[in-house]
Amino acid sequence: MENCIFCKIVQGEIPASKVYEDEKVVAFLDLTQTTKGHTLLIPKEHVADIFEYDDVLAGEVFARIPKIARALDRAFPEMCGLNILNNNREVAYQSVFHSHIHLLPRYSEEDDFNIHFGDHSEDFTNEERTNVAEKIAQEVEK
């Protein structure tokens, strides 16, 4: 895709600190380095987000995550955890619209990164949760 920074990395038009590459994916250090070793895994094929993946591409991309995760774990023995994130669409904090998966090594609870999941369990009755689950399940079957 024209003017996509990640496509330009795939095509070798701009440099990247690559940690892994094969015929389907490229993994490279994120320029922000939220934590040491912050790595992005991208499909070489341009897809904007998870909603554009087919089953084959999803299998190819997501199957590479453990390989990169284990490499990070071996490279940084002081790492005590790992966040794996995939942001989709702007409201979900996607800033580059070529699908990418963040692998964020964690070294302590004081890393400059956090995730806050709000607890809204009391906002939904059991019946409402059941209705939500049924609605999603019906769409999964399509």
From the alpha carbons, calculate the radius of gyration and give it in angstroms: 18 Å
Estimated share of beta-strand residues: 15-25%
- What are the low-pLDDT stretches, counting only 5+ consecutive residues below 50? none
Structural class: alpha+beta
Share of helical residues: 25-40%
Short description:
This protein has four helices and five strands.
Question: How would you portray this structure in words?
Answer:
A motif (Histidine triad motif) lies at residues 98-102. One of its GO terms (molecular function) is catalytic activity. It comes from Pilibacter termitis. With 142 residues, the chain is an alpha+beta fold. The chain has one domain (5-140): HIT-like (HIT family, subunit A). The protein is built from 4 helices and 5 strands. The chain has a 5-stranded antiparallel sheet with strand order 1-2-3-5-4, covered by helices on one side. A hairpin with a 3-residue loop joins strand 1 and strand 2. The radius of gyration is 18 Å and the shape is globular. It starts with a helix and ends with a helix.
